[in-house]
Each structure stands twice: as structure tokens, then as C-alpha cells.
Specification:
Layout (H helix, E strand, L loop, with lengths): L8 E7 L3 H16 L5 E8 L6 H6 L4 E4 L5 H11 L4 E5 L3 E3 L3 H5 L8 E10 L5 H15 L4 E2 L6 E5 H7 L10 H11 L3 E12 L5 H21 L12 H16 L15 H14 L2 H11 L7 H28 L3
Parallel strand pairs: 1-2, 1-4, 2-3, 6-9
Antiparallel strand pairs: 4-8, 5-9, 6-8, 7-9
Helix pairs in contact: 8-12, 9-10, 9-12
Length: 338
């Protein structure tokens, strides 16, 4: 029987090789799916070419399982919303666990027809991991500073109108990272507003291994080049990040580029000793980590968050490497014939 509610929502969850987190994710939303008068009318899990037990876990639960082609999260999300039957499409990630009221907190924003989408915030699903805590508390610090009306929505917990998805052709499947920002910018180009609701939360299984985290940061740097070159006017910051965040990866690359100067420290040739220039660049980059680090320590009242400074310092280099690779890749593709 069709649910008698004002607004109906389809939930799309993309995932690949997510057997470790998928069951908890799906079980967190099934109660709303089965409840009377719930706005949630269907849950679609899009399996983006998994090779582990993901498929069997999803198929054992009362949700709709859709096999994707392994083309990435953008393609999986597009496959999902195109199969959805509701006018509102809610997206969460397969490594999150939705709070019972996560959807309820988002929906009031969609009563305003001028709002094209609304996203929520995080809880930390792995509080025993120092790395996960550092990642999480940085995100929360940024979320606490965000207003209701924003210019960027993340896809880990977001609702978009189906007609907007149709008009824009969905997510740009080229982007393996930063596709959420890319789509946000196009939605705003339609004259629609984007809202942020910090009270709507999903618990995220943040990465707990430093190597995996830095790999993701390199990928983020790579795709940010495409994002800012194809959507100019956002490179100085957005609702989530600011200019100081955006200058750190280029500054990190400048630090590395200055290292060879130390080998050419010829007396009288330089106005300032090259080693002094290099040292100053590294010191400036490290100093840029302390405003946010201090905020984390003050808010949490926990000294372990001083560890954020060296983590974000290291992250700047990996993002910088990604941006360098992305710049080269973008330039080469621009020179290549169609």
C-alpha cells in the first residue's frame, strides 16, 4: 500500500567492496522504510562492481539491490536516482550509519521550493582510532562554522530534488573525487539554494590507516584541479574551506621545489641564504596548521588533538602532489585532439 505522506523519499546508497560496513548502514535505515507514514518509500543499494561479500549482504535485506558496472561513485549514484520513484532522492554512503532522525531533520528544508538540496553532518563510528578522531573533529569544526545557506553540499548525507538531477544529467561521472562540489556548483547555477543542517547526522567509518588517508588526499588534490578550472570562481574557498586551506598544497610544493636551492648556497651569490628561504617556507606551512589545531584542542579540551598539526602539515604535501598530477593531466588532455 502506498504510504500516505506529503513528501516521499527514495534513498540511494552506492558502494563497492563495503561488506565490513554495509549491514550496519542498511539496518540503520530499514526501520524507517518499514514504518507506517514514513517519508522513506524505498532503499536502493547500488553495488559498484564489488568482489567481496557485499552483494550477498545486501540481497539478504529488504531493500532493492542494483548491480552497477564499477564505474565509480558518480555512475553508481546516477544509476540509483534514475531508478528511484520519488521526487526527493536522499544519498548516504555505504560506510555510514544513519541516525534515526537523520532524514527527519533534512526534510523541513525541502518544503522551500527554492532549496534544491540539503545536506547533514557526521558522527564518528570509530572513536577508538586517533586518526579517525582527528579527521572527524576537523570536519565538525568546519561544520560548526557553516551557515544554513551554503554553496557546497557533500554526498555522504544529502537530499536533492529529482527534477534537478534530471535537468543537470546527474553527477559528472568523470570525477572520482570532488563530484559533490562539482554538482553543487551546477545546482547553484540554476538559481537554486543549498542548505546545511548540522542536526542531521550519520556516523561515518573514517579511515584508520594513515597510508589510505594520504592516498585519498592525493586523489582529492588531483580532482580539485579539474573542479577549479572547470568551475572558476571557487578556488579561494567555499562554505566548508577557506583561502588558507587552498594555498597550503601549492605552498607545500614550493617547499619541495626550494630544497635543491640548499645545494647551491654559494657565498655572495644569494641575497638571502637558500637554506633560510627553504626553512622559512616550511615554517610558514607548519604555522598555518595551528589556527585550526588550536580550535580543536579548545573545543574538545583534549590534548591529543595537538596531533592534528603534523597530520595536516603532511596532508598538504599529498594534496600538493595530487594537484601537480592533476594539473599535468588536465593540460595534456586539453592539448589532445577530441
Amino acid at each position: 500500500m502506498k504510504k500516505d505522506v506529503l513528501m516521499q523519499v527514495s534513498l540511494v546508497i552506492p558502494g563497492r567492496n563495503c561488506a565490513a560496513t554495509l549491514k550496519a548502514c542498511l539496518e540503520s535505515v530499514i526501520p524507517a522504510l518499514q514504518a507506517n507514514h514514513s517519508p522513506l518509500v524505498e532503499v536502493l543499494f547500488i553495488d559498484d562492481g564489488s568482489t567481496d561479500d557485499t552483494a550477498s549482504i545486501a540481497q539478504d535485506l529488504p531493500i532493492t539491490y542494483v548491480r552497477g558496472e564499477g564505474k565509480g561513485p558518480g555512475a553508481a549514484r546516477n544509476l540509483g536516482w534514475r531508478r528511484a520513484k520519488s521526487d526527493l532522492v536522499w544519498f548516504i554512503d555505504s560506510d555510514t550509519v544513519a541516525a534515526p532522525d537523520a532524514l527527519e531533520k533534512l526534510l523541513p528544508h525541502m518544503e522551500n521550493e527554492k532549496v534544491g538540496g540539503v545536506s547533514g553532518s557526521y558522527e564518528n563510528a570509530v572513536p577508538e582510532s586517533l586518526l579517525a578522531c582527528l579527521i572527524h573533529e576537523e570536519i565538525i569544526e568546519r561544520h560548526l562554522a557553516m551557515p544554513t545557506e551554503v554553496n557546497f553540499l557533500a554526498t555522504f548525507n544529502v537530499i536533492y530534488r529529482r527534477d534537478i538531477l534530471e535537468e543537470l544529467g546527474g553527477f559528472d561521472e568523470r570525477y572520482l573525487k570532488a563530484q559533490d562540489a562539482e554538482f553543487s556548483f551546477r545546482v547553484m547555477g540554476l538559481g537554486k539554494k543549498l542548505h546545511f543542517e548540522i542536526e542531521s547526522k550519520v556516523a561515518h567509518h573514517h579511515v584508520t590507516q594513515l597510508g589510505k588517508y594520504l592516498k585519498v588526499q592525493r586523489q582529492q588534490g588531483f580532482w580539485r584541479v579539474y573542479l577549479h578550472l572547470e568551475h572558476q570562481g571557487h578556488s579561494t574557498g567555499d562554505s566548508y574551506s577557506n583561502l588558507l586551506d587552498h594555498i597550503q598544497p601549492p605552498l607545500a610544493m614550493l617547499c619541495l621545489a626550494s630544497l635543491p636551492l640548499v645545494l647551491f648556497d654559494i657565498s655572495g651569490f644569494w641575497l638571502v641564504a637558500p637554506c633560510t628561504i627553504t626553512t622559512a617556507l616550511f615554517v610558514i606551512l607548519f604555522a598555518l596548521q595551528f589556527p585550526l589545531t588550536l580550535k580543536l584542542v579548545r573545543r574538545t579540551k583534549d590534548k591529543k588533538y595537538w596531533a592534528f598539526a603534523p597530520l595536516s602539515f603532511l596532508r598538504a604535501f599529498w594534496r600538493g602532489v595530487g594537484m601537480s598530477l592533476g594539473t599535468c593531466d588536465y593540460a595534456l588532455k586539453k592539448k589532445s585532439p577530441d
